[in-house]
Request: fold
Amino acid sequence: MKTNFIQTYLSVDCVIFGFDDNQLNILLVKRDAVDGEKKIQKLPGSLIYNEEDVDDAANRVLFELTGIKKVRLRQFRCFASPDRANNPDDIKWLNKEYEPNINRLVTVAYLSLCKIDRKLNNVSKYRSTEWCPLNLIPEMPFDHNQILNESLLEIRRWIEHDPAIVFDLLPNKFTISQLHRLYEAIYNKPLDIRNFHKKVATMDYVQPLEERQTGVSHRAARYYKFDKIIYNKRKTNI
Amino acid sequence: MKTNFIQTYLSVDCVIFGFDDNQLNILLVKRDAVDGEKKIQKLPGSLIYNEEDVDDAANRVLFELTGIKKVRLRQFRCFASPDRANNPDDIKWLNKEYEPNINRLVTVAYLSLCKIDRKLNNVSKYRSTEWCPLNLIPEMPFDHNQILNESLLEIRRWIEHDPAIVFDLLPNKFTISQLHRLYEAIYNKPLDIRNFHKKVATMDYVQPLEERQTGVSHRAARYYKFDKIIYNKRKTNI
DNA sequence: TCAAAAGTGTTCGATATACACCCATGC
DNA sequence: GCATGGGTGTATATCGAACACTTTTGA
Reply:
């Protein structure tokens, strides 16, 4: 039964969200130029190693970029179209970056969240890593634009199952207003601020602090923090 | 940058649900015995071909089993642990069924639904295909038991996004009672029958027929049908 | 007439939505 | 004192949960 079953290279690609107090951003890397090709931004990712699970590979990519060992991430889809790596520029880049004659490349897409003010590692293999606002996402190689679009749907599903993840996008101390803008950005629609306050009040794991904003030219907002312990107690009760 | 990136074989494995009016069943196939090994049941699946997307491979497996060309299916996770195919029996089987020296096998798991009274194709490569009730699932090779467990969580998520899928598990004409038992099986808990009638009444795409059961030794139940057109109109309104 | 399943309404609590004004602060 | 964003309450509609009896049919 020798048939044309195929061995493929397998990669992970990570859609890493950040929030800059106004909008969602995605962490993009520049891939090296090949020949006359322009440098181009793409999702960070990597081929998987010999003895590596895909989850581990995604963690490795995240660690290289952020220095965080145990980051929250979520696999959301495998992209395996035979012609997803058919663009000549993409083939050239694959040959240079990895090995020649990669005939096929299947990728497993991951979603992750990161505080945007976190200092990023400068990973030598990339020319630059930078946050790109969602509305300014460029054309990207392979099917990275499609991967990104699917990740936007996935992040909402993820929140429903684990509301705590949004706090990965905020500083440790945050105002209700920041949380409000974050929800509006994720759901891409305005949310009534009074109802939002009520909603937060029902989240006993969002705890008010005594501390308030300083130096703002308006009434100072109270800071809140996410209380992991209370949250985990709740979760086991569900 | 020649490193130990790996080429792997890639397979799809399908968790196909059926409903026998009392409980959920899974379609399992027997894989051929190798040497002294006993015949063993597993999820149907296949390696992917050279120019084949994973979705197409899953569709192919489904088509081979059921003869249905366009079946509803949902990718739900990629399983890629380096030691998922480390069991000696599994290695022997892989060598015989496919090619020798498959060093690594990554699988993409799919969920699908099928009317249980559908006549199944007898696919030559399997000794038998049969429905197995959920509570009688045997030990399966690879990580198929884990894949099955995750599919049970996934089917509920799927329903929330697309309530129509449950009708793939029922005959074209069905009673509220059948639908009720199906929901109870999927959520694995009793659902109040009066509330359930109300719930169904709000689904305008579940249409009552004039026809009723015959030959039953109790009050005959009305038949209902799923109206795809009405359902699709609703969906675009969301 | 009995057994077995079909079918039917009301109440209550929780949750989501809509909506407008005063407060604190820096300039 | 004014511009800016922070913070608050009420009324209504909707949804889910609890709960028991009558109807129809074949045996």
About this structure: The beta strands of chain B are 7-19, 24-31, 40-42, 45-47, 73-79, 105-113, 129-133, 174-175, 206-212, 222-226. The domain at 172-237 of chain B is CATH 1.10.10.10 (Arc Repressor Mutant, subunit A). Chain B has a mean pLDDT of 92.
